């Protein structure tokens, strides 16, 4: 029997989204509702444009039962997954399939108004390429490289995002698109994407993003863990002492000796330039590593060992089942992972590393996009939200 909440329209939609095409009989069995009630739920969801009858082909005699599917083509999502110096933009359908995408070189330090203005222009161009308009947009997902208050949709006291502190991002975007906006930390977005698509069975996971900066997203109890104020996972600004390195380097946040100041992409570019290499970006550094340049390779292995110092503390504290490593620097994983594993297995408690897996991100550069799609859809189709939508349509 249903408990009174499992059979609401929103719960029925969640079941259809999770399982794919489903018949009335299957819904009756899984929800405990009567056939008449299931029929009413399906009628309401169809009238709202949220589900449709799936095409059924059958070679057997007789008419096959009707199957119902989530109507993924019922609109579009706008996704912007940003790092410190660039942003990946995508237009997806409501199931997360990418319809169009682009990448924009855009410095987050430019400030919120010029940065968001450029993103809005790029979104508009992508929609035009697909012959879609602003009325087709159902939701927007935005990942940013700083501490995020996900409820308020604001960045709070970011170390490198000048001018972004508590800027009203949703208000800015509302002037262009009439759709809900989900704002997330970039490493959290990657964690959500990797967890949902690659490690759904894992209850405890740490996602480490190694790019221009360094950040981490935490999965605890199967869901994203943000901490009391959204600052959980800021591993890049943990300060360490590396005696053989001499005086600790200055970090962009103003402190000295941060992990990021030793091992972030911007720090590797700094050190390569000091060694006489002509590099202008993290991409250039990764390309240099790919050629087997000994200086670049040495710096990346060193970066891995130093990142592993902070990661070993996190492993001992959190005991995750899986550590997933992504970001632009992870493209050189053969050299990077060796250094990380060396530090983690040498410094962490044996019990914490007994079953630990340290693996590359399966979604690669699309992990953040996948996570944002998941976060936006979880918001749009949260069962009580769907129930309220259908109730309003009948009054």
Task: List the keywords.
single chain; alpha/beta; Arc Repressor Mutant, subunit A; Nucleotidyltransferase, domain 5; 5-stranded mixed beta sheet; 14 helices; ROK family protein; WH_DNA-bd_sf
Helices and strands, in order, run as HEHHEEEEEHEEEHEHEEEHHHHEHHEHH
At CATH level 3, the topology of the largest domain is: Nucleotidyltransferase, domain 5
* CATH uppermost class of the largest domain: Alpha Beta
Stretches where pLDDT falls below 50 for ≥5 residues?
none
- Tally of domains: 3
User: Major β-sheet, in short?
Assistant: 5 strands, mixed
Number of helices: 14
Tell me what the structure shows.
The chain is of the alpha/beta class. The protein has 3 domains: 9-71, Arc Repressor Mutant, subunit A (Orthogonal Bundle), CATH 1.10.10; 76-190 and 369-380, Nucleotidyltransferase, domain 5 (2-Layer Sandwich); 199-364, ATPase, nucleotide binding domain (Nucleotidyltransferase, domain 5, 2-Layer Sandwich). The protein contains 14 helices and 15 strands. It has helices at 9-19, 24-31, 35-47, 112-129, 169-174, 186-198, 259-263, 265-274, 282-290, 294-318, 333-347, 350-353, 367-380, 383-393; strands at residues 22-23, 51-54, 67-70, 76-82, 86-92, 98-105, 137-144, 148-149, 154-155, 181-185, 204-210, 214-220, 223-225, 322-326, 357-360. The strands form 4 sheets. The chain has a 5-stranded mixed β-sheet with strand order 6-5-4-7-10, sandwiched between helices. The protein has a 5-stranded mixed β-sheet with strand order 13-12-11-14-15, with helices on both faces. The longest helix has 25 residues, at 294-318. It starts with 8 loop residues before the first helix and ends with a helix. The model has no long low-confidence stretch (mean pLDDT 91).
């Amino acid at each position: 029997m249903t408990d009174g909440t499992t059979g609401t329209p929103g719960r029925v939609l969640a079941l259809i989204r999770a399982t794919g095409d489903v018949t009335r009989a299957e819904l009756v069995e899984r929800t405990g509702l009567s056939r008449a009630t299931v029929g009413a739920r399906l009628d309401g969801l169809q009238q709202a444009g949220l589900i449709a009858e799936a095409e059924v082909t059958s070679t057997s005699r007789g008419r096959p039962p009707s199957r119902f599917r989530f109507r993924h083509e019922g609109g579009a999502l706008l996704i912007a997954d940003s790092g410190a110096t660039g942003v990946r933009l995508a237009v997806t359908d409501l199931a997360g399939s990418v319809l169009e995408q682009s990448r924009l070189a855009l410095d987050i330090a430019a400030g919120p108004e010029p940065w968001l203005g450029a993103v809005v222009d790029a979104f508009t161009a992508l929609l035009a390429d697909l012959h879609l308009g602003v009325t087709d947009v159902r939701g927007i997902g935005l990942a940013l490289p700083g501490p995020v208050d996900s409820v308020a949709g604001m960045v709070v006291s970011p170390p490198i995002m000048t001018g972004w502190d508590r800027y009203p991002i949703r208000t800015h975007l509302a002037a262009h698109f009439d759709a809900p906006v989900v704002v997330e930390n970039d490493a959290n977005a990657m964690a959500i994407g990797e967890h949902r698509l690659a490690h759904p069975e894992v209850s405890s996971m740490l996602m480490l993003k190694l790019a221009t900066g360094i950040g981490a997203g935490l999965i605890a109890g199967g869901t994203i863990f943000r901490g009391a104020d959204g600052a959980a996972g800021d591993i890049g600004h943990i300060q360490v002492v590396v005696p053989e390195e001499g005086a600790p380097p200055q970090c962009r946040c103003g402190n000295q000796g941060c992990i990021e100041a030793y091992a972030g992409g911007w720090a590797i570019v700094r050190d390569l330039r000091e060694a006489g290499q002509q590099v202008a970006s993290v991409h250039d550094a990764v390309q240099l590593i790919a050629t087997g340049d000994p200086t670049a390779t040495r710096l990346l292995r060193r970066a891995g060992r130093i990142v592993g110092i902070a990661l070993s503390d996190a492993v001992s504290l959190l005991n995750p089942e899986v550590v997933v490593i992504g970001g632009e620097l992870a493209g050189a994983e053969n050299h990077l992972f060796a250094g990380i594993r060396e530090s983690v297995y040498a410094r962490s408690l044996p019990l914490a590393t007994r079953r630990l897996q340290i693996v590359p991100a399966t979604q690669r550069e699309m992990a953040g996009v996948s996570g944002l799609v998941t976060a936006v859809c979880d918001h749009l189709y949260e069962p009580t939200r769907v129930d309220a939508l259908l109730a309003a349509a009948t009054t």
